[in-house]
Fold this protein.
Amino acid sequence: MTQTAYRIQGATGEWEVVIGLEVHAQVTSKAKLFSGAATAFGAEPNTQVSLVDAAMPGMLPVPNRECIRQAVRTGMAINAQINKWSRFDRKNYFYADLPQGYQISQLYHPIVGEGEIEINLDEKNPDAQTKVIGVERIHVEQDAGKLMHDQHPTRSYVDLNRSGVALMEIVSRPDMRSPAEAGAYLSKLRTILRYVGSCDGNMDQGSMRADVNVSVRKPGGELGTRTETKNVNSVRFVMQAIEYEASRQVDVLEAGGKIVQETRLFDPDKGETRSMRSKEDAHDYRYFPDPDLLPLELDDAFLEECRQSLPELPDAKRKRYEKDLGLSAYNAAVLTAEADTARWFEALLAEGARVQKKSEGEVAKASANWLLSELYGALNRLGRTLEDSPVTPEDGAELLALVADGTISGTIAKQVFEIMLESGGKPAQIVEEKGLRQTSDTGAIEAAVAKVLAGNADKVEQYRGGKEALFGFFVGQTMKAMQGKANPQVVNELLKKALA
Amino acid sequence: MPNSTDKNALTDLTVAEIRDGFRGGAFSAREVAEAFNANVAAAKALNAFIVETPEKALEAADAADRAKAAGEALKPLAGVPIGMKDLFCTEGVQTTAASHMLEGFTPTYESTVSKKLWDAGAGMLGKLNLDQFAMGSSNETSYFGNVISPWKRKGGDNAALAPGGSSGGSSAAIAARLCPAATGTDTGGSIRQPAAFTGISGIKPTYGRCSRWGIVAFASSLDQAGPMARTVRDNAILLESMAGFDPKDSTSLDLEVPRWEAGLSSDLRGRKVGIPKEYRPDGLNAEIAALWDRGIEWLKDAGAEVVEVSLPHTQYALPTYYIIAPAEASSNLARYDGVRYGQRDLPDGAGLQDMYAATRAAGFGPEVKRRIMIGTYVLSAGFYDAYYTQAQKVRALIARDFELAFEKCDLLLTPTAPSASFALGEKQADPLAMYLNDVFTVPASLAGLPAMAVPGGLDAQGLPLGLQIIGRALDEQSVLNAGLAIEERAGFAARPEKWW
C-alpha cells in the first residue's frame, strides 16, 4: 500500500506538520499517589481528601506502591526501559488548586525511559500502513484539585478530591505527521492502558487527556517553533486541534509572521485553539528533588512480578486470533481493538468450546461472526455497549451451540436472540417454551412439501421446465409452512425428491 | 528524695528522679505537675510559652496516679511533665510555629513524636516559643515576642539575653525549671546552640531516627526532632520514647530503638576521640578554646584516646547550609497561601495573586521572608546549578569528610557555639553575624549525624558554654556516653538566679 503523506497546501507550497503528544493518564488505584485517600470519580466535593492532600502543616507524602506498579507495567507494555532508580522532584508554583504549592513529579529521573507504540492508520484494514511512534518517557506525578467558578458570584470554590491522584505522563517523540496518526496513537495508547489495567482511559471523565505539541515546516526542513495545546480530552478533539493549529501556523508563517512558543487552549465548540500564555509568562517551576521522599529503587523481584502480571497485549492477541483461531484480519483487528471486546469474545469462546465440547478454534469463526454482526447490531440498536449488554457470553455460547447441534436453524436463532434481548431469558428455555425446536420429522415435512407443490402447480411446471432458480422459492414456502422450524437440509432433500 | 511538700525541690528534679521518685512513692504525679504548672504560671517574664496547658499536665499526672494506685504497669514517662516546642502539631491545641501565619491554627492531628511521648505517659505543660518556623538562632524572630534567657551576665549588666534558637523556649524553660525536659527540633543547630546558651544538654539524633510527621517543616532533609533536658540520662530517656520507625515518614529509619539509658556508661577506655583542626580558627574565642581543652582532658580522664583529625570542607558547611535549607524552606512554606487554613488577607476586590501576596506579606516575619527569597533565588532557572546543585555536591563532600574522620576515631569533640549567649538585639541587624552562630553545628546536620551539646562551664561573665560531641550515624549511644563522661567531670551545677 502506498503512503499518501499528509500535507497542508499553502500559498507558498506544501507544509508538513510535526506532532508530539504528552498524555496524562490517571492511574487506576483505589488510593492516591502519596496518601491513602480514595479516588472515585464523581464523589461530593472535598470528600476524598486526606490531611496530606490538603497540605496541612507537617504532613508528608508516602509513595503508594500500587501506583508505582501500574506505571512500571505500563512501561513494560510498550517495551520501554524501566529505570530501577528514579526520583521525585517538586515542581513549584502557586495556584489555588495546588495545596502544597508544588506538584510532586519526576523531571530529572523518570521511572520509565524510551519505549515505542506501533500504530495502524486504519485499524480495520490490516493492509494499511503501520508506523512506530517513539515514547520518550513515562513519569508519575500528582494531579491538582479543581476550581469551581460557578458556585458564587464573586468567589471561586476549590474541590480537592483530585488533589494528589496519581497520573502517568506519557511523553511521545515528535514522530507523528498527521492528525490521523495522532488519533491512531492516542487510540492505541488507550487500548494498551486498558489492556494493562493501569488507566481506565475514560477521556470524558478526565482520566486521560492530551497536551498536543504542533509545529509545521517545509517537508524535510528544519523543525519549526511549536505550540502546546493543553488538556484536550477526546481523540476527535486532538485531531481537530492539530488540523486547526497546523493551518493557523501555516497562515501565520506565510503572512510573514513568526510562531510564538506558547501554551494554547482548544475550544471544542468552535474547533479552534487560542493563546493561553506565552513563554515569557511561563512559570519558573524551580524543580528540585523532593527532600521528603527517598529515591525510588525497584528490585528484580518487583519487576518480575510486574512482568508476570501483564496480560496478553493487543498486538499479540490480534496475531493469535488470525493465526491460531483462523479469524479474518478484519475480525481479529476489531475484536482486539478494545480490551473489553476481547475479554467478552474470549469468554464467549471459552464457554462455546466447553458446551460444544470442541476446541476454541472450531467455534471461533461462528462466535466472531455472531458477536460482530448479531450482537453488535443489537447493541447499536439499543444504544448499549458490551459492558451493559443484556446478553451474557454464556447466553451467547448457549445460543450458538443450539445452532451448531441442529436444535434450531440460523433463522430461528435470530428470533430466539430477539426474545433474549427483550426478556433476558435463556436460549434453550426460550426454544422449549416457544416450541422453536427444529424438526427433522420427514413425515411432517413431506406433508408440507406436498401442500406447497400442490398450491403452486404453475411454478412446479416452470421449474420442471428448466427454471431451476425457483427451488429457493419452494424452500422458502416450505419453511414458512413449517414456521421456520424444519431442518433446512431435510427440506432440501425432500423437495429435490418431490420435484424430481 | 525531697519532702513532698517542697515544691521548689520537685522542680529541681531531673526526669529520671521524677520518674523514680513517683514510682517509689516519694510524691504523686499530681504534685509534680502542680509544681511545674506553678513555675510556668509565675514565669511570664521569660515568654517561654506560647500556650500553657496546665490541665493537660494534670490530666496525664492523674492518669499516672490512678495507674499506680491500681497497681498497673507504669509507662516509661509516667508522672513526667514536659514542654512541647510549638513546631509539633498537637491535636486540639494551637500550633503556630511562632508565626502570625498559623496564629489560631488548631490541628486535628497529633505529631508522631508528641504522640509517642503522650503514649509513654508524659504530660504537656504547654507549647514552647521558638524562632518563627524554626528560622533563627536567638528567638528574636518569633511573632509572639522573643523568649528571654533566665541567665544574666555577672556584674550588674541587666541586659536581656538570648536563650538561643530556634528551640529557645525549650532551653529557657528547662534552665528556669519550668519543665524538667522538652522537645526541640534541630535543622542546623536549633537544639544544640540553645542548650549551650542556657547550660543544659540536648541531642539531635541521626537523621531519620525520629519521625518528622506532624512537625511543621522547615528544611526536610535536615529537620530532626530531639530531646532537651538538664542531664545526659534524661536525654537518653526521652529519646527512647521519641524515636522509632514511622510508616508515615518515608525518610524515617526502619530500625529498632536502642535502649540508650540502659547502655549509658562513662567509661571511654578503648574509644578514640577526634579533634577536628578546622574547628579551631584563628579568631576562636579564648574562653571557648580553653573549655574545649578542658573537654579533651575530661575525655582522656574517662579513658579515651584523643587524636587530631581533619574535616577539610568545614569552611563550606555554612554557605552550603544557607543554600539547601532556604531552598527547601521556600518550597515547604508555599502551602501557607491563605486558601485552606491559617492567616488569610483578602483585600477588597483582590484576586488570587493579591490574596497570596497580602497573606504572605502579613503572615511571615522578615527572617522567614529573607529565607524564602534566598531559597527561591537559588532554585531559579539559571542559578540552580551554580547554587543548589553545587551545594548538594559540597554536602556530599562534607559527609565524606566525616566518614574519613571516623576511620580514625569514634567520636568528635568540638565547641557547640562560637560564643556564649549574646544580648537580645545585638545581632539582629546583621543576619550574617547571626548565621555564624551555627558554624560548629551545621556540618553534622548536613551529614545527618547524631550530635549532642553538654554544658562544660561558665565564661568570665558567668554565662554557660557548651561542648559538642558528634558521632557516627546511628551511634547515639557513644555520643551519650561521651556526654555523660563530660557531665560527670565538668560537674556543671550552675543555675540562673531567679529574677523573673
About this structure: Chain B has one domain: 1-500. Confidence is low (pLDDT under 50) at residues 1-5 of chain B. The radius of gyration of chain B is 21 Å. Chain B is about 35% helix and 10% strand.
